[in-house]
Amino acid sequence: METDAKIYVAGHRGMVGGALVRRLRRAGFTNLVVRTSTELDLRNQAAVADFFAEEQPDYVLLAAAKVGGIQANSTYRADFLYDNLMIQSNVLQQSHRHGVRKLLFLGSSCIYPKLAPQPIREEYLLTGPLEPTNEPYAIAKIAGLKLCEAYRAQHGSNFITVMPTNLYGPGDNYDLENSHVLPALLRKFSEAAAQRLPQVTVWGTGTPRREFLHVDDLADACLHLLRHYDGALPVNAGTGRDITIQELADLVAELTGYTGEVVFDFARPDGTPRKLLDVSRLHGLGWRHRIGLRAGLEQVLTSADWLQATQAVATATT
Ligand SMILES: NC(=O)C1=CN([C@@H]2O[C@H](COP(=O)(O)OP(=O)(O)OC[C@H]3O[C@@H](n4cnc5c(N)ncnc54)[C@H](OP(=O)(O)O)[C@@H]3O)[C@@H](O)[C@H]2O)C=CC1
Ligand SMILES: C[C@H]1O[C@H](OP(=O)(O)OP(=O)(O)OC[C@H]2O[C@@H](n3cnc4c(=O)[nH]c(N)nc43)[C@H](O)[C@@H]2O)[C@@H](O)[C@@H](O)C1=O
Description:
This protein is α/β, with parallel strands linked by helices and 318 residues long. Helices cover 44% and strands 14% of the residues.
């Protein structure tokens, strides 16, 4: 990849898109094209066609999507299915029409069957029923992956697909209802520590296991795959290690200095019991994660992004 190649990063204001932009800039890529969703709604077929005709990018990184945690996925089911189907269909079709040299599509570990054998290998896709809380999102992501495969098979398009585990890092969403577990716990425990609250409520039973990858590691993995991988097979991206939600809550309590009680709200869904990714394909391609969970969380809690996000939340609630 030449450093003056024109790269469209879709979703650059999001957590993953932001990390991709930072990583690409650090690697010397200067010709980045970005649009906010207000400037370009990727669900709009005609607008996406006009954009590609005007910009003619060489590479496309598709990090724009409707994204959220277990509650958002379960509540806004139509939006998660419709928005994601439209965004990816429009971007993939125009990337094909305009002869984009390579496209990277981001799926998710939730595309695999709810009770898949662990760790989850890429070939377990479509071998069993999905987790109901995020079935619409998973169906959309599976359709995206299959569309990449189909463009490659029918037209020879170099569309590659990456399936990340649960991510965290700068640019995360700290909304208490719609976010993923890690940002939610960081906020709940740090607020409880500051206000000396006697209890923090964690959703579900605390027994589900989750794997967490720092978003800067994911961005690095994506650049590695852009440079070194042209295959049809999807590639899992994770650390190969997971922990229970109870262990995660204990870790976040320790890091935020919270010493009160942790209670579990059994009325909230657990979701998938476990979704540890088998990352041997990615390791075989020469990439491994660098940022462990404790170090990654310490980095988040001392970052300018965290201070900004928590100040914005404090201002909005006073
Ligand atoms: N977060 C996670 O834990 C995981 C994420 N992923 C995948 O990574 C990708 C990025 O996720 P993440 O960065 O966390 O998500 P974010 O919610 O942080 O960012 C999503 C971005 O998508 C853009 N977007 C949403 N709808 C539209 C639209 N209609 N038109 C144009 N742009 C739109 C938004 O743009 P704007 O800000 O301009 O409105 C936003 O910046 C997704 O494909 C997701 O499935 C996969 C596994 C785990
Ligand atoms: C990345 C992935 O993210 C989603 O799947 P998920 O991993 O189930 O999502 P989550 O991070 O929101 O929850 C993980 C676990 O944690 C528990 N939990 C405890 N306390 C809080 C809490 O306060 N908030 C949240 N959100 N969860 C909590 C929660 O009950 C669950 O057991 C997919 O929908 C899909 O979008 C996807 O691809």
